[in-house]
TrEMBL record, chains A, B, C, D:
<dbReference type="InterPro" id="IPR058924">
    <property type="entry name" value="AGPR_dimerisation_dom"/>
</dbReference>
<dbReference type="GO" id="GO:0003942">
    <property type="term" value="F:N-acetyl-gamma-glutamyl-phosphate reductase activity"/>
</dbReference>
<keyword id="KW-0521">NADP</keyword>
<protein>
    <recommendedName>
        <fullName>N-acetyl-gamma-glutamyl-phosphate reductase</fullName>
        <ecNumber>1.2.1.38</ecNumber>
    </recommendedName>
</protein>
<keyword id="KW-0560">Oxidoreductase</keyword>
<feature type="active site">
    <location>
        <position position="148"/>
    </location>
</feature>
<dbReference type="Pfam" id="PF01118">
    <property type="entry name" value="Semialdhyde_dh"/>
</dbReference>
<comment type="similarity">
    <text>Belongs to the NAGSA dehydrogenase family. Type 1 subfamily.</text>
</comment>
<keyword id="KW-0055">Arginine biosynthesis</keyword>
<feature type="domain" description="Semialdehyde dehydrogenase NAD-binding">
    <location>
        <begin position="2"/>
        <end position="140"/>
    </location>
</feature>
<keyword id="KW-0963">Cytoplasm</keyword>
<comment type="pathway">
    <text>Amino-acid biosynthesis; L-arginine biosynthesis; N(2)-acetyl-L-ornithine from L-glutamate: step 3/4.</text>
</comment>
<comment type="function">
    <text>Catalyzes the NADPH-dependent reduction of N-acetyl-5-glutamyl phosphate to yield N-acetyl-L-glutamate 5-semialdehyde.</text>
</comment>
<keyword id="KW-0028">Amino-acid biosynthesis</keyword>
<dbReference type="Pfam" id="PF22698">
    <property type="entry name" value="Semialdhyde_dhC_1"/>
</dbReference>
<dbReference type="InterPro" id="IPR050085">
    <property type="entry name" value="AGPR"/>
</dbReference>
<dbReference type="InterPro" id="IPR000534">
    <property type="entry name" value="Semialdehyde_DH_NAD-bd"/>
</dbReference>
Length: 346, 346, 346, 346
């Protein structure tokens, strides 16, 4: 299967290039960058010297459809929605890594402050979380690749939601992300000297991943009631990695062991989810540069509240790795193909 | 007033030395280190060359009482409780920066897994949070200097607790700390390569600051009911700084503005607490190397929950700076004396 | 003495504000920023809340001369030279922290690729390295504050140059700097994710501090011959600090001890230069947020070459601290006034 | 070919495990750790969960010879030499990643301050730098895998030495390394808070890699004269990566272009050496987690001196990757097998 990466010089695009360049069954056939078209990508990123020979191209749907079967759009939110319809029309299957096709139009307009895509396109988009929706993904023309925080949060909470073991009204998610999650665009807040030796919250009460998480949790909830949660995101002075700490009141008498057994069973066929034993908790470096999501949890007998911790690499399982996993599913090959590299622990 | 620092070569001790060396009215007269006695402290820490001429001494209560009026004990929990009684007996006033005198004996035994100090000593110890207890501190023989997380958390929540504006049963505190909070003792988890580019939770459900926070919140609660909360601590790859994110359900209809007005009023005479306006949130570098505690908050109209963020420097307002503030109170001088340095933002 | 800081929102300007806000004898009376005029500086940098009440102003020489005696220009190279003449004309004494007045016009044009200031102005500027030129500084109208690398390199090498103990033709300086040395201007190379976990050289063979160092070394050389050296600069993933490693062949039979004795004598009246004993070498954190320059050296008996290591804080002794030291000299007060704070080791 | 990793829980051992676990033609059959024997390695390092099922064993030569063809010893210097003879005697081929078999016995004793291995063993050891000695490596029983600094330095300088284009008497190498180069052993100097936001030199004039570099340079020198150089090593606050900056006086009139052409030719068959064009210089992140060595250089017309910059990942090309490259050569397979992963740029 032949793959084009649109927006290849951003951080997510670059990670797609890294994964596809070493993928044994997918072939990278085009990389685009409107701002640096006609330049060899290895001249922009010398680490790709001798590895990726491609020249960056302008985005043009017809041309891409000639050389590729699937287009991966790693473009900023708002830009993605402008190009996706023409890609689909040209016959490409599309995996959109931007946030443009993950929400109904009203929520998109409210949280992204942008004009939403057409409703029928949104209705056709499959939410690309393979641990939940692999069957739908396999047949999709348009996959909305999940956001980084939603991936970690949903994998943390869906087993409990589906079983009704937590009270959705008590849900609080405290997320922490490395800096690549903010992308490559320059603004003063990502100057090295501003981020380094600093820790802060950002987009308090306003993060656009909030409705994405709520929507899927509502869909997966036993009760069907709308889930509304408190979600706070923080910036960690490191490049890669997300850790989410999720809190909810239990509705049942279950123990830490009971919950871990539930998770182990829920993810028994999910090759990238690793559930830790009692007393062991995930850390971001355990999944660095890999597609794993590590989960650990603790039931506090004092408060009858559960704390669920999940770690992913925001650029891999939170973006590019998940997209490749989705391409594997589209291609009908083992979903771990090209994604089995060992985490770069150090 | 003459001051002795016990345990001067640990990170908290070193910060006490830094603050006292530039204090205009307190005189540093003795520094101790059992493991490096008889060595000049500037030979252990060359940054003190030409600034601090003192030679490290073994801890000996009688000798310290000869040269100092107040002893600051920056010793590991468990060691502090062994030496404090003899310091008091020798006529010294003591500010204990360890956790040994902050809890009733049963809670100390349960959370610290150590033999507690004598009950009458614990009963006599004043909890050294000057924003709440300055009057008691002024007359204390033994001040239990608060822990770093409790300082940030209590300053975040006491205005709401005293006014009964939040439901204590819904309280969740998600704390994040730089590495110096773990002290200087060597163990693999604080190797540079383990901490750098990593983010993780630690002591999940078991942090010894939990009962310290709960105890003071219970004391300050309007209802008098026991406060039990969920508290999770995380390690940030940076040296200094704590950010706490505290969550609670509101019991009132108040807005973000209302809460900020409450805080501004509550802290109007507290020179080290800075309450941010709507939409601005604290970050650790804004208080770095200073004694400030910056607070910001947000009421989410969707969930009727408040998120309170507070930032301190764990070594200053979270330890050594607060101790110097307490000494100033003991000495009857302005509590900001020697603590007015500008945060080292970069 | 009243002081104005021009370019107060850059990193060097901000450090000037920090030092002046806590200076006991100098008064900060104006802060300028053309891009953020009429805004309170504490609204741009909330860490200054309750500390610095000033509102940012546009640069206007007459207005500044009304409120200040000395103007400190922390502007980009090229901008500084445009405003300095009018400041002088308005009767202000000026300390220029940019590189505009440190070189003869031909070298300035060659290395800075900008139009140089007028020759008579350049001729009148005093090079503001107080350890060498305190007497001239005291009477100067215009002080050219040294660059960060030149400060560390010159303090490392002048004792040997003055005594003719090294062969200037063999001089190699390998410099390493934290990121604040590059200033606050945004370009992709200072994105957190580009700098973090990376080490690289920059401006190889082309750093504009090269002729500044060579010029002063030539002036201080016993032989009077032009000094030409190899100078390479590297970017360290940290905020503050410069370490220079300087290499030269010895022309004499002297040992490490002999050289250290020479340095100790040379700097006996220099309060900010600390010479380490044999076998101890400087590190950047030993001088962090302070005005010290720490020096250590080693004579290798195998090669008869000396390696001199020097550490400074690039924002303090390498920029703002040195400027304040120069203002102290202008003001006729002890040059350490307001600069005695203890290094922030952690 | 079956491979055993001795000392699998150190940082180099762990990197060997990472590379071998994803190697398509080598099989990892045993991992040892005397201190943690009988524990599953994934319980010590949870990032290996579901990937490496091996249980750690005590080192026992006979047992290892039963399950493996080649032993990779990633043990501390001094320990390696104790076990290597028994491994060879048991019929294993050995690649020693420690420094024990790289020097003649007198130099080993002088620089390592340890008892050297037997002279005949040292004489039989092949220096495992494949770019120079692939033919000898192919037939070796014992390969001395080069040190991290020597790898970068030798690849930087051998083309010039072989051609006599530089004066060996003027050679100065200024090296900078991430912290994993120091290994996993605990001592205060690698505490996160000591390394972070700090830059320093270490082992000034005394680094044990000095004679290793000099010995190979002497062997490769056109003149045959003993090379003696000045070598200074510095610690960079990052996990991975070495950058070396090497300086030497040219003996010829050649330009930067001429030298780059020489290098391009010299390394035309070396798949892991990438020579940058004029004006582009290596940085450590361009080779991170990969086996590449990137080289750039500049001839300064002012001083007729060349500056050569080289970047490697100290754990890969500087240790484990080079060892795997050597095993590939022993096995008679393409030397890039299992080593073609794309650098993890971010």
């Amino acid at each position: 299967m032949k793959i084009a990466v649109l927006g290849a010089t951003g951080y997510t695009g670059l990670e797609l290039v890294r994964l596809l360049a070493q993928h044994p069954e997918l072939e990278l056939t085009a990389v685009t960058s409107d701002s640096q078209a006609d330049v060899q990508i290895a001249d922009v990123y010398p680490h790709l010297t001798d590895i990726v020979p491609h020249v960056l191209e302008r985005v043009e749907a017809e041309r891409i459809a000639e050389v590729a079967d699937v287009a991966l759009t790693a473009l900023p939110a708002g830009l993605s929605r402008e190009i996706v319809p023409s890609l689909l029309q040209a016959g490409l299957r599309v995996i959109d890594l931007a946030g443009d096709h993950r929400l109904p139009s009203d929520l998109y307009a409210e949280w992204y402050k942008k004009t939403p895509p057409a409703d029928d396109l949104l209705a056709s988009a499959v939410y690309g979380l393979p641990e939940l929706y692999a069957a739908e993904i396999a047949n999709a023309q348009l996959v909305a690749n999940p956001g980084c925080y939603p991936t970690a949060t949903l994998l943390s909470l869906v087993p409990l939601m589906q079983n009704g073991w937590i009270d959705p009204a008590t849900l609080i998610v405290d997320g922490k992300s490395g800096v690549t999650g903010a992308g490559k665009a320059m603004h003063p807040s990502i100057h090295f000297a501003e981020v380094n030796e600093n820790f802060k919250a950002y987009k308090v009460g306003a993060h656009q991943h909030t409705p994405e998480i709520e929507r899927i949790l509502t869909r997966e909830s036993r009760t069907g009631k709308e889930v509304t949660m408190t979600f706070t995101t923080h910036l960690v002075p490191m490049n890669r990695g997300i850790l989410t700490t999720s809190y909810a009141n239990l509705t049942v008498e279950q123990t830490t062991d009971d919950l871990l057994a539930l998770y182990a069973d829920f993810y028994r066929d999910a090759p990238f989810v690793r559930v830790h034993p009692v007393g062991r908790y995930p850390q971001t470096r355990d999944v660095s540069a890999s597609n794993y999501c590590d989960i650990g949890l603790h039931v506090d007998p004092r408060t009858r509240r559960v704390t669920v911790l999940a770690a992913i690499d925001n650029l891999v399982k939170g973006a590019a790795g998940q997209a490749v996993q989705n391409v594997n599913i589209l291609a009908g090959i083992d979903q771990t193909t090209g994604l089995r590299s060992v985490p770069v622990y150090l």
